[in-house]
Amino acid sequence: MKPAVLVALALALVPVQSHAQTANVQTADKMRTLSAQLRAQAVQMKDQLSAQDIADMLSSADEIDAGIAAGAYDASAPVLHETAADRIRREHDGRLDWLAKETVCTGFSWEVVDTYRLTTGDRDAERDVLCRRAYRNFRTWFYIQRDHPGPNAQATAALIAYDEAAQEAVAFYEHR
């Protein structure tokens, strides 16, 4: 029997794993387990297979062990670049429109930014300007994303401007 057939046979005897589980199969620990299983199956099947087939199974286990020792299965997951949207979601409980839950701009939204006026008391004019700036940037981001889905430098700039303006509005309100 060829080594590839033996490895396939050994893998067929290993319990089937879901796709999500197999995504991490290439770790050293999983490969170490596979090597041990190959060795155990070689011992169990010594009466059913030829000496050459058993030697091939053990050779495959040795190759796996050599790969483990060389670090062939220790590849770390690639580092993904965090987008501005990812950062904002991470910082604000999964929300891009996080300003909507803040008291400072109550009544505002990107849909009514041109018609709503804040008139509730002291220093409203300054709050009104800050909230308008934030929500106009959010509206710009929304329209760009709607009309041109996917990565877009203009949309990213608008989202960052929204986040910065929203933070400025919150800071203004907290230090009044």
Tell me what the structure shows.
Mean pLDDT is 79; it is low at 4-25. The protein starts with a helix and ends with a helix. The chain contains seven helices and no strands. It is mainly α and 176 residues long. The longest helix has 24 residues, at 124-147. The protein has two domains: 3-70, no CATH class; 84-174, no CATH class. The chain has helices spanning 3-13, 19-22, 28-44, 51-70, 84-91, 124-147, 153-174. It is rod-shaped, with a radius of gyration of 30 Å. Helix 1 (3-13) packs across helix 4 and helix 6 (124-147) runs antiparallel to helix 7 (153-174).
Main features:
rod-shaped; mainly alpha; 2 domains; 176 residues; 7 helices
Short summary of the structure?
The chain is mainly α. It is built from 7 helices and no strands. The protein folds into 2 domains: 68 residues, no CATH class; 91 residues, no CATH class.
Helix share, percent: 55-70%
* Morphology call: rod-shaped
Number of domains: 2
- Main beta sheet strand tally, sense and closure: none
As a percent range, the share of strand residues is under 5%
What Rg, in angstroms, do the CA atoms define?
30 Å
Number of strand elements: 0
- Terminal residue distance: 81 Å
Structural class: mainly alpha
Average residue pLDDT? 79
Detail the poorly predicted runs.
Answer: 4-25
Q: What is the H/E order?
A: HHHHHHH
How many H/I helices?
7
